[in-house]
Write a structure and sequence with these properties.
The chain has helices at about 5-75, 85-210, 215-240, 240-245, 250-265, 280-300, 330-335, 345-355; strands spanning about 265-270, 305-310, 315-325, 355-360, 370-375. It has two domains: about 5-165, Helix Hairpins, CATH 1.10.287; about 240-375, 2-Layer Sandwich (Heat Shock Protein 90). The chain is an alpha+beta fold. It is about 75% helix and about 10% strand. Strands 1-2-3-5-4 form a five-stranded mixed β-sheet, covered by helices on one side. The longest helix is centred in the middle third of the chain and has 126 residues, at about 85-210. The protein binds adenosine-5'-triphosphate and magnesium ion. Adenosine-5'-triphosphate (ATP) binds near residues 296 and 344. This is Oxygen sensor histidine kinase NreB. One of its GO terms (cellular component) is cytoplasm. It is found in: Cytoplasm. Keywords: 4Fe-4S, Coiled coil, Cytoplasm, Iron, Iron-sulfur, Kinase, Metal-binding, Transferase, Two-component regulatory system.
Length: about 400
């Protein structure tokens, strides 16, 4: 059998690893986002610096042109300008030229920085997008793992339950066969052997004392009649014919009548709601559970009264079987009789198989109550007894 808890452990471990990876991805994404903001801020500032610098360079170029023109002017006219003045003009033009060169160099550097920052920004954008995609994928994996784990364990659980149910159904069937064999062995088989013996006796009697044969034959007829009754009872217990032909309530009525005659316990059968046709399996299961409860009452309860209540509500059939007998400790009996008694266990399993609810209440000295209910599809249009058509 598949070990559900092992499988669960493995999937849970995988989930933990994937969850950790998702956290890691969140962190990476967050770092990339912060880095992106910082880079964008830096890029803005570099761009501002560049435009300031462009303005400065433009201005400086104007000033440099002016200084050069002035130098040309003073250089052309030696006589009107002193050496001092010419030198000053030359130095001023040279200084402007140097300043211009340095600013242009700075502008070039800033442009390089800007390009670098723009590339970084693009890479960061890709990283952020990728991490978001990965987080979405990982979340999906987690979801699938969670969902599959749930459905997987439900499926495996159901499978195991079905296997266990199948096994106990086979056991219950074997028990039922044993019971029927015992009943035939103790009842009709013995009666038949008896009948053969008494028939032989009749034959002998015809030779010895023909007048006694008539009396003996009457006795023999009584025996055959009671054997026939036994056989009918066994057949009814195996499968009440009326269950198929007439429905659950008439079958129960017949059973209760027989039960009263058999064991002298007063049984009250109450039917609430209008009887509607049930699925064949449901009717048999309900009948069997009531039958088992009533058999237990006969065997153990020592009750003087029993009540069977069957209620046909909209979507369920609710049943209560109660007796005023000695009662018993349910927990103790079930744990002691585990694997031995199929009565109560079988009742519960039959009802579980029909997705119904089953409850048994009992305490020594306080009688016993078995209550169960089975969900049904109320198909009132079908008339009872028409299911065979
Ligand atoms: N109505 C009842 N009153 C008193 N005791 C009960 C009643 N029903 C069940 N019990 C007790 O519970 C025990 C278990 O019942 P259960 O029907 O499961 O098994 P069983 O009748 O002993 O065996 P099986 O039904 O397989 O022939 C019984 O042996 C009996 O001691
Ligand atoms: Mg029993």
């Amino acid at each position: 059998m598949v070990n559900v808890s092992n499988l669960e452990r493995i999937i849970n471990k995988t989930k933990k690893i994937v969850e950790k990876s998702r956290e890691e991805l969140y962190r990476l994404g967050e770092t990339a986002r912060q880095e992106y903001e910082r880079t964008r801020y830096e890029l803005d500032s570099v761009k501002n610096q560049i435009s300031d610098l462009i303005r400065e360079v433009d201005e400086l170029e104007g000033e440099y042109t002016k200084a050069r023109l002035y130098l040309m002017e003073v250089s052309r006219d030696f006589n009107r300008h002193s050496e001092e003045q010419i030198k000053g003009a030359y130095e001023a033009a040279h200084a402007k030229q140097l300043e211009l060169l340095s600013k242009r160099e700075k502008e070039k550097l800033l442009r390089l920085t800007r390009d670098h920052l723009e590339r970084n920004l693009k890479n960061l954008e890709t990283t952020i997008r990728r991490s978001e995609e990965l987080i979405a994928n990982v979340s999906m994996v987690l979801k699938i793992l969670g969902r599959d784990l749930e459905s997987l364990s439900v499926e495996i659980g159901e499978m195991q339950q079905r296997q266990a149910l199948g096994f106990s159904i086979i056991m219950a069937q074997e028990e039922e066969r044993k019971r029927v064999a015992r009943e035939i062995h103790d009842g009709p088989a013995q009666s038949l052997a008896n009948i053969v013996m008494r028939a032989e006796y009749c034959l002998k009697l015809m030779d010895i004392s023909p007048s006694k044969v008539k009396e003996e034959l009457f006795g023999l007829m009584d025996l055959v009649r009671s054997s026939l009754q036994d056989v009918r009872k066994i057949i009814f217990d195996l499968r009440p014919m009326s269950l198929d032909d007439l429905g659950l309530v008439p079958a129960l009525k017949k059973y209760v009548e027989q039960y009263r005659n058999d064991c002298g316990i007063y049984v009250e059968l109450t039917v609430l709601g209008r009887e509607y046709p049930l699925d064949g399996c449901q009717a048999v299961a309900i009948f069997r559970v009531i039958h088992e409860a009533m058999t237990n009452i006969k065997k153990y309860a020592g009750a003087s009264q029993a009540v069977i209540k069957v209620e046909f509500s909209k979507n369920r059939v609710n049943v209560v079987v109660r007796d005023n007998g000695i009662g018993f400790d349910v927990e103790r009996v079930l744990s002691e009789k585990r694997g031995v008694a199929f009565g109560i266990v079988g009742m519960r399993e039959r009802i579980q198989l029909l997705k119904g609810k089953f409850e048994i209440k009992s305490a020594p000295g306080h009688g016993t109550e078995i209550a169960f209910s089975v969900p049904v599809v109320n198909n009132e249009k079908l008339s009872i007894g028409s299911r065979r058509d």
